[in-house]
Amino acid sequence: MKAHPTSIEGLLRIELDLQLNADGWFVESFHRDKLLAAGGPAYDVVQHNVLAIDRAGVLRGIHAEPWDKYLAPSAGRLFVAIVELRANAQFGQVECFELAPGEALYVPRGCGNSFCTLEPHTVYNFLVNETWSPERITVDPFDPELAIRWPFPRAELSYTDRDASNPPLTEVRAQLV
Length: 177
Description:
The chain is mainly β. The chain has 3 helices and 13 strands, in the order ββββαβββββββββαα.
């Protein structure tokens, strides 16, 4: 496991040791001690969630919950956009990644997470260090200020009305000040 810092404080891009074999592959998608040894935080998982999506172009987010997240696909590929939503000098900064099996992200609380499936039959795992609660900060994934270049035109994306009606970044910024 190798952890690489990004331009957003605390956000780590993680390379996992994907081992190919005659039947497919094996990966240890999360190992607390190895994450710590690679420079990551001491991360105590409370809940492991799995989301399976049948088609490409499904978009979810942007959501910043009051917990840290460890994201790793086990099938398919994801486009992930992380937005800094903590009240600091980096507020509004966006980092985008493509993730496939063998790759992961550690997302600190306060950073908004969003993703779009790039392939059908994508399986997305996320581990969290707090149990679910409805508390969260949301932002419009299509906000021009964020300028996220989604991998499909908006008309071809599948998203919830709730996500599309999230407030723009300017409203979130005003609430944090």
